[in-house]
Amino acid sequence: MLVDLMAIAEERYEPEIVELLRMCHERALHLQVPPRPGHEGLPGCWFGGRPTLPADIEWPVYVRNGHAIPMNFVAQFDCAQLPRLEEYPMPEHGTLMFFYEPLLMRERHYEEDEPLGGKVIYVEDAASIPYHDPPLRPNIDAKHLDFLSDGFEVN
Predict the structure, then answer these.
(1) 95: phi > 0 → left, psi -120 to 50 → alpha, else beta; which?
(2) How far apart are CA 72 and CA 139, in angstroms?
(3) Continuous segment of H or E residues that includes residue 7
(4) What is the pLDDT of residues 32-60, one digit of tens each?
(5) What are the respective helix, strand and coil percentages of the chain, to the nearest 5?
(6) In 3-state terms, what secondary structure has residue 137?
């Protein structure tokens, strides 16, 4: 369901409030987990679990103090199932897989070429690919990872 929140605000609020909202307003897609067990949602789209990542594409990792640490799989979306919005040009077919690592999003100033916490992988045809388990996370004592200093790399 597509909702125009600015249209709703214009109906309900004074013009001054609407103008303040307009200054902060950004278009966005809101995706949600199916609301109840047994509800399938959109085919080829899910949150969590395992992606259908092809064997020739490596699971995204970030490197911290010399250790390759797998990113968390967040969601997979079949592009053919997503709504078409002019503001968000997306592929009409294929699959998008989203990976994220919260440690890469810590609050600090980022340069343009620094990783910002995640990676998106596009696969032309993921329908016939089996589910892919994530690589094992290295058994590293947290005291050996200096999370507060620089040194992240994303692969």
Answers:
(1) beta
(2) 16
(3) helix 5-12
(4) 665 555 656 677 888 888 899 998 999 99
(5) 20, 20, 60
(6) coil
Beta carbons within 8 Å of 63's beta carbon, 6+ residues apart: 69, 152, 153, 154, 155
Give CA–CA dist 66/150, Å, rounded.
12
Residues in the chain: 155
For 108, residues 6+ apart whose C-beta sits below 8 A from its C-beta are none
Which residues sit opposite 133 in a β-bridge? none
Distance CA 107, CA 127 (A): 37
pTM for this entry: 0.66
DSSP 51-101: ----TTSPPPEEEETTEEEEPEEEEEEEGGGSPPBTTB---SSSEEEEEE-
